[in-house]
Amino acid sequence: MTTAYSDHEFVSVKGFSASEMMNEAERYALKKISKRSGATLSLAILAGAFIGLAFLFYITVTTGNDSTNWGVNRLIGGFAFSMGLILIVIFEGELFTSTVLSSISWANNQVSISKLLSTWGKVYLGNFLGATLLVIMVTAAGLYQLDGGQWGLNALNIAQHKLHHTWLEAFTLGVLCNILVCTAIWLTFCSANPIVKAVMTMLPVAMFVSSGFEHSIANMFMVPLGIVIANFSPDTFWLGLGANAATYADLTFNNFIINNLIPVTLGNIVGGAVLVGLANWGIYRKQMQQPDMLSINTPVTIAKASKDSAMINSVKVKDLMNTNPIVLKASERTAQAIDTLLSNGITGAPVCDSQMQVVGFFSVHDAMVNLWCEDYLPDAKQVVGELMCDDVTALNAEESLVDVAEFLVMDKEKVFPVSPMGIATSFSNLSLKERVKEAKVSKPHILPVITNGRLVGVISRSDVLQALRPLYENEPLVEVAKAI
């Protein structure tokens, strides 16, 4: 969450720089641990099924391609498999290998180690249930008989190969895999556009799949599928292939758990939680706390508006803001948060962590939208973190009053429609004042104020208007600021 200012225009930036992506990663991690158990488990089951579907796609596109170049064949399969992570990102599923990025919240002292491991456990269980459910459906559908049984034979060979790694190999392949998976997730923090997010995940996933790296949740689907085919396929299946079921006698659940699932899971944790999550946290959080990096992590001090009166520019946000604002927590029950807003007569409040860093904004609008979506039967256990807006526009305490006022009422893209090169993109015969009045501006009514990355107050439209009110009587703004 941050803001930038260029040519007198406030812009909410999401993923503008590496440090901005770090801020987004922190919000992502906090969301993971703030969800209710039921929601976490349900989304984890969905994610487990999505990964299983991705492996089905992989098996299908790589079956019968013996004449194709080995690398090209695996690359095609890798791109097909990327469908799984794309679906999870778009549907906001809970995948164990990406949920381990919540280690960032532990590093920020936002969650205890027991709560962190509990969240991981719920997601891991849900992924297993989703993968298992898909194995049952695929087996019942007889997909292993496709292409004269070659589809099933391909699945058997893939599953068996996964059990022939040494412990060190399986662990290391798991580390390499989740470095790429979590890097793919990290790349999605640079944009809110779902198409961009989908494209960002494809190459890292294609690389880990085509290189044979090991993904614990994918293996929860692939190896059990191989075990089921090896042990429950009819004799006609083996006769049609001219193969012997005894060749795949090592496909057992005991071998799977001991020789693959345990070392790969541990490797996935190290690769994602440590080498991506905590490593990036250590690099960027430390840099963002240094003076030369504060301009990246905090709202940029905006340029002075070109006004004739120096008095107007002398009034700052810090002179007007409420320094004791109502603050909510992501883990707070929605009902409790609504009561807090209503009892204080406000329409919204910033959501902060234990270090007073803004992680979101919760408003009455968010609550009412949720009520409508839930047919006015909301979950009583719902928490603020599930509803809050995590793309928040904030101000610096040193911003001038006139620039804040301009931000609240102006839509520069509609009033001055020009390209980055200064070339007009549309024309209008309306006057400047008419264009300003016609432009429909949707800006926050309450804005958090941040200094050095932490909340120091809030300012509302009413605060701004109250400070500007004396202009109608030609009263000096400096005197108003002193009075406030």
TrEMBL record:
Q: How does it sit in the membrane?
A: Multi-pass membrane protein
Gene3D superfamilies of this UniProt entry? Answer: CBS-domain (3.10.580.10), Glycerol uptake facilitator protein (1.20.1080.10)
Any one of the GO CC terms: plasma membrane
Among InterPro entries, the record links this protein to: Aquaporin-like, CBS_dom, CBS_dom_sf, For/NO2_transpt, Formate_transptr_FocA
Q: Where are the transmembrane segments?
A: 39-59, 71-91, 124-146, 167-189, 261-284
| SUPFAM superfamilies documented for this protein | CBS-domain pair
- State where the protein is found: Membrane
Residue ranges constituting the CBS domain according to the UniProt record: 321-380, 410-477
A Pfam entry, by short name? CBS
This protein's source sits in the domain of life called Bacteria
Answer whether the UniProt record assigns the keyword Magnesium to this protein: no
| Keyword annotations | CBS domain, Membrane, Transmembrane, Transmembrane helix
Q: Which GO terms describe its molecular function?
A: formate transmembrane transporter activity
Q: Which family does it belong to?
A: Belongs to the FNT transporter (TC 1.A.16) family.
Protein name per Swiss-Prot or TrEMBL:
Formate transporter FocA
Q: Which organism is it from?
A: Enterovibrio norvegicus FF-454
